[in-house]
């Protein structure tokens, strides 16, 4: 099955969504209607549906709604005319039969002719024929659908206009339009009164509601809550940066549910009925299983997926429900610097923050292991174990001697075996009384030095890529450089942007990308407080993935964390890593123009489904006697065509949900095919989504 008209109808379906989706932020100068936004209906829906203002779709009515208006009304009218004629003649015929039967058998109301018997017979005949006519012609003419589609809305509008609301209904409506009802009923009327006179945005509302829920958990916090709100109003419990809104905010968000609306699921047969023409959205419940997006450059992965998700995570951080780490090249459009609390730009002398290469890990062996895996290129991963051991033999003793981790230049000197660096390390261990604990490690490193397979020399060469004048002060550990950011702070609502120097130092950027993603996976899984959703966005993850990270991504589902990984092609990854990566993530997105071999992995991951297939077989007509055969011969002589019989066979067969050819060649521009899995395990089959707003 192809796209079933997606190309010819995607403009119409995108322009006519199932329900209007007003932008959550009014134009500049227009106040935000908090009461209307907070009271907007948010019905339960399948993952991926933007629930604010969403209307549930009845599958039976959805199938019926496929019939255009005029054919539906014409069929209903024709069936009404034929039904009326059938009713007239059927009533007369049935009355005649009843009269004949009553007089012949003496049974029935006309056994003794009378006026009462005639009226009763007429009533029975009318009711019986009317019931049959409505049953038969009403079904063929779809009268019920006509009633639902046209009569019910008209009557509902008329009743609403003519019948005034009762006092109880007016009171309930007023209660629903008061966003601070819960505070008034919970004993915080003073706080609610202060907020009534404030300009409260959706970020403020969600943040204050979250603080209120925390106060409700322990009644002792209630006075502090009231005091804070009474003092600061809508700025109460603000983000540490005191920021309450993102500049240049552009996407549609529903912060009550943590959703960001990315586009519209198309009204095509390939999409399930629950999602057709509905708004498409992502939220922490879906991102918690992680999302892999594959597509060539220029297909909208960054602008239509990564940037909106980064914007959503930053807004949720301001509301106190998430923390965000966004990694990409310096020129990637992942939002302005004003969106973030910490902007790290190794290679940029104007950058205010540096990077902790060890992630502030408490265990030196753990920190050294992650750094070793990040330093090695893909083609040298076979030497990862020896490299990890060599780095641990230097990092552990240095930490024991000086109480900190070595800087890039210090570590490079130790791995290269420079006598002055080793002598200073031994002296520091002796002064700390720890020389005996690490003497064997130092001796082993001394024996390895100078050998052809010395992993220390390899690591020293790789560290040289970070020991450049452009990175001066970016990775300092002795307090002399820029304040270092450590991934250990994921239990705070922090917004972090890392700008990698992909143009000036591409290999260093690859190492830092792998290091940061590995640190995030470790830190997110090791958090004690998992109340905040920890989200990571990686604009180009081709250099950031290895087998350890892929295993760690799968464990994030239970840690209230998730990653968004963008790839230009799966060919950028080692072949042994592609299938495990598909198994580790719960959500997958294919963008237009992907290679057929990439499409094959998506197609296999999405599997098959049953479709109804109709086969038409044509065969020469050989039926009939001499006259019919002579007629067919004459027709063939005159027209040159042979009479044929047509045989139609319908059966259910298994077909790929999306074939590699469809994914590679048939996706419209600005669209993507996305499958989703929620943290709860609920799955959504691949959806064709228009991501153009």
UniProtKB/TrEMBL annotation:
Source superkingdom: Bacteria
Region Disordered: start-end pairs: 1-27
Comp. bias intervals (Basic and acidic residues): 1-13
UniProtKB keywords: ATP-binding, Membrane, Nucleotide-binding, Transmembrane, Transmembrane helix
InterPro entries the record matches: P-loop_NTPase
TM annotation in the entry: 76-98, 118-138
Gene3D superfamilies associated with the record: P-loop containing nucleotide triphosphate hydrolases (3.40.50.300)
A GO term, aspect molecular function: ATP binding
Keyword Nucleotide-binding found: yes
Protein's recorded name: ATP-binding protein
């Amino acid at each position: 099955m192809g796209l079933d008209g997606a190309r010819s109808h995607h403009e119409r379906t995108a322009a006519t969504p199932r329900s209007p989706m007003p932008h959550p932020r009014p134009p500049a100068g227009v106040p935000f209607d908090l009461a209307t936004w907070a009271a907007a209906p948010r019905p339960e829906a399948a993952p991926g549906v933007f629930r604010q203002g969403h209307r549930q779709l009845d599958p039976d009515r959805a199938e019926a709604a496929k019939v255009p208006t005029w054919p539906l009304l014409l069929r209903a009218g024709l069936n009404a005319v034929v039904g009326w004629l059938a009713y007239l003649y059927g009533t007369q015929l049935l009355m005649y039969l009843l009269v004949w039967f009553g007089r012949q058998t003496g049974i029935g109301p006309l056994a003794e002719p009378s006026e009462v018997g005639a009226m009763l017979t007429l009533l029975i005949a009318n009711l019986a024929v009317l019931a049959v006519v409505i049953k038969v012609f009403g079904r063929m003419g779809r009268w019920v659908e006509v009633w639902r589609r046209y009569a019910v809305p008209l009557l509902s509008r008329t009743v609403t206009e003519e019948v005034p609301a009762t006092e109880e209904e007016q009171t309930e409506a007023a209660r629903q339009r008061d966003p601070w009802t819960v505070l008034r009923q919970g004993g915080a009327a003073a706080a609610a009164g202060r907020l009534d006179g404030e300009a409260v945005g959706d970020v403020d509302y969600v943040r204050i509601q979250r603080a209120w829920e925390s106060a409700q958990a322990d009644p002792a916090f209630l006075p502090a809550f009231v005091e804070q709100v009474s003092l600061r109003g809508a700025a109460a419990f603000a983000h540490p940066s005191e920021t309450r809104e993102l500049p240049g905010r552009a996407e549609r968000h529903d912060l009550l549910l943590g959703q960001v609306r990315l586009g519209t699921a198309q009204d095509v047969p390939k999409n399930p009925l629950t999602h057709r023409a509905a708004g498409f959205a992502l939220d922490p419940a879906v991102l918690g299983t992680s999302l892999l997006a594959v597509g060539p450059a220029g297909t909208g992965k960054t602008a239509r997926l990564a940037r909106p998700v980064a914007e959503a995570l930053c807004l949720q951080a301001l509301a106190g429900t998430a923390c965000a780490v966004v990694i990409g090249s310096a020129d990637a459009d992942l939002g302005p610097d004003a969106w973030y609390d910490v902007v790290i730009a190794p290679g940029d002398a104007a950058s205010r923050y540096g990077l902790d290469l060890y992630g502030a890990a408490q265990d030196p062996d753990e920190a050294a292991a992650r750094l070793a895996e990040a330093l090695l290129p893909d083609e040298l991963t076979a030497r990862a174990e020896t490299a990890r051991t060599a780095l641990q033999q230097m990092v552990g003793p240095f930490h024991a001697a000086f109480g900190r981790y070595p800087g890039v230049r210090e570590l490079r000197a130790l791995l290269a075996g420079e006598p002055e660096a080793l002598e200073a390390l031994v002296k520091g261990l002796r002064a700390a009384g720890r020389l005996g604990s690490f003497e064997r490690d130092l001796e082993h490193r001394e024996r390895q030095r100078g050998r052809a397979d010395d992993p220390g020399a390899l690591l020293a060469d790789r560290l040289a890529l970070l020991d450049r004048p452009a990175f001066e002060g970016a990775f300092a550990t002795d307090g002399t450089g820029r304040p270092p950011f450590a991934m250990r702070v994921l239990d705070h609502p922090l917004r972090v942007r890392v700008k990698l120097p992909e143009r000036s130092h591409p290999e260093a950027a690859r190492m830092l990308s792998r290091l940061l993603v590995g640190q995030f996976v470790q830190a997110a899984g090791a958090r004690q407080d998992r109340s905040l959703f920890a989200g990571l966005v990686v604009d180009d993850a081709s250099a950031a993935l290895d087998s350890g990270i892929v295993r760690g991504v799968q464990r994030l589902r239970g840690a209230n964390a998730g990653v968004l990984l963008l790839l230009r092609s799966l060919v950028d990854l080692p072949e042994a890593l592609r299938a495990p990566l598909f198994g580790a993530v719960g959500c997958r997105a294919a963008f237009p123009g992907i290679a057929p071999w990439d499409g094959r992995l998506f197609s296999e991951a999405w599997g098959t489904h049953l479709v109804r297939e109709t086969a038409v077989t044509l065969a020469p007509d050989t039926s009939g006697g001499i006259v019919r055969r002579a007629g067919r011969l004459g027709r063939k002589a005159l027209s040159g065509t042979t009479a044929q019989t047509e045989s139609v066979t319908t059966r259910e067969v298994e077909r790929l949900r999306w074939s590699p050819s469809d994914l590679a060649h048939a996706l419209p521009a600005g669209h993507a095919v996305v499958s989703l899995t929620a943290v709860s395990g609920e799955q959504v089959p691949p959806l064709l989504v228009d991501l153009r707003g």
